[in-house]
Amino acid sequence: MKVVQKLRKLSRSSKQQALPTRLRKKRFLLFEEMANAITSFTTTGTLSVGDFGGTVGYWDQVYDMARNPLNLDITLINYRIDHDTDNRFRYVEADVRDLASMPDKAFDISFSNSLIEHLGDLSVQARVIREMLRVSSYFYLQTPNHAFFWEPHYALPFVHWLSLPARMKALALVTRTAVREQYNAYVENPVRLLSRSELRYLFPEESFEHQPEHLFGMTKSWVVRSRLNSVPSSKSGQ
């Protein structure tokens, strides 16, 4: 129980040196590597990034926005935009499940961090991915691994492998408030982590690299990014 409590504390901490922040920074190196490679064969000198579900706080954690060494032009795309915006970013208010109004190749890179698991069932996830590919030339995505024992949204081990009723009973052992909050969140916006086979289905390996992120010797999450010798087709994931 002490191990679980420690992991819960680490997973929810927002301090700069907390485990989730360190993992995000390490993972972000894969994006930087891809962005540098793309820049080497583009002529504009600026990379436009559409961050689907992105936040200012995330970018401040992983990237030096003051120096902006990659010369990124970042657009945060969310269902609702806060009134207090940050002029270092552009903003688009949109439901990522419906991007019909967004033009083809609006961005150099479609970017998402821990988003796809919040969007519904596999068919909805596939549709969103097709649209994200349509509106960009390259692609970067991170998502938690269904096979990893720790569920980051519940901050508990194993619960994502249980049926919903069993999951509620497990949460009841922690706190009844958590049961109500998590149940309501699940009904309104169910969290659905991707399996390895689903990841291969949605992102064929001839067009995408699948990079595992390890913790405790296991794959905690996956990073998917475009193979630079193959610009992904908007038909991927069908």
CA radius of gyration is 18 Å
What is the averaged pLDDT score? 85
Terminus-to-terminus distance: 43 Å
What pattern of helices and strands is seen along the backbone?
HHEHEEEHEEEHHHEE
Structure description:
- The chain is globular.
- 28% of the residues are buried.
- A seven-stranded mixed sheet has the order 3-2-1-4-5-9-8. Strands 6-7 form a two-stranded antiparallel ribbon.
- The longest helix is centred in the N-terminal third of the chain and has 22 residues, at 19-40.
- By secondary structure, it is of the alpha/beta class.
- It has seven helices and nine strands, in the order ααβαβββαβββαααββ.
- Strand 1, helix 3 (56-62) and strand 2 form a beta-alpha-beta unit.
Question: What is the element layout, followed by pairings?
Answer:
Blueprint: H1 2-12, H2 19-40, E1 47-52, H3 56-62, E2 72-78, E3 90-93, E4 107-113, H4 122-134, E5 136-144, E6 150-151, E7 156-157, H5 164-172, H6 176-188, H7 196-202, E8 208-215, E9 218-226
Short characterization:
This protein has helices spanning 2-12, 19-40, 56-62, 122-134, 164-172, 176-188, 196-202, and strands spanning 47-52, 72-78, 90-93, 107-113, 136-144, 150-151, 156-157, 208-215, 218-226. The protein is α/β, with parallel strands linked by helices.
Which descriptors apply to this entry?
238 residues, alpha/beta, two-stranded antiparallel sheet, 7 helices, disordered C terminus
